[in-house]
Design a protein that fits this description.
This protein has 226 residues and is α+β, with helices and mostly antiparallel strands. The chain has two domains: 122 residues, no CATH class; 92 residues, no CATH class. It has six helices and 13 strands. A five-stranded antiparallel β-sheet has the order 2-12-11-5-4. It has a four-stranded mixed β-sheet with strand order 1-9-10-13. A four-stranded antiparallel β-sheet has the order 3-8-7-6. A hairpin with a 5-residue loop joins strand 6 and strand 7. The two termini are 26 Å apart.
Length: 226
Amino acid sequence: MANSRHDGKDGHWLERQMGISANRDNNPDLLGYEMKNQTTSKTTFGDWSANYYIYKDKSTGINRNDFLTIFGKPNMDKGGRYSWSGEPCPKINRVNRFGQTLVVDNKSNIIVLYYFSKDARVNKEDIVPLRFQLEDLILAQWNENSIRQKLERKFNQKGWFKCLKDHNGVYLSIIFGNPINYENWIALVKTGDVFFDSGMYQGNPRNYSQWRANNRFWDSLITSRY
């Protein structure tokens, strides 16, 4: 039996009950609908890696590990392992303590920018190589056409539904929402209702580039409940 306290196992259990086989083809889960399981606080649109990362640009002379030590943060509970998650993870409309922010350009691409002058780390001169001590340095970019295809293949067919539980963990109801196209979605990125939730860390090749919204916001999208 799947452990209901583990979101991933719980989701796989629900997929099996719905007759959905595990896949990564980015198509909607069931009959044109994207299925979501109940989560504690946030629900994911997708795990969509950027089209460009600065560490993949050979001209920069850094690798993924370098990127994490320069632009990420060590986790002392994990033996000083660096990650690009939590505090360093960029958000829209503000520059964080690591000098990073998320912007949407006039072509609806999503870009992570770094500003050395706004990096508040006291030893930033020692951390950031001289060639990166710049303003408007692009750390990552999601191209509009790429993320549009991923989003609309999943959410812009018949819409989405989420299976909800009661306080005992028993599935009790299903909620539905309308299809979501890229124009609507990118508008939510601009307001911060949809946000980048990076989980990239040293020792794991996955980028964990999650795009999420708080469950309270998902609730505002409900069109029917059964």
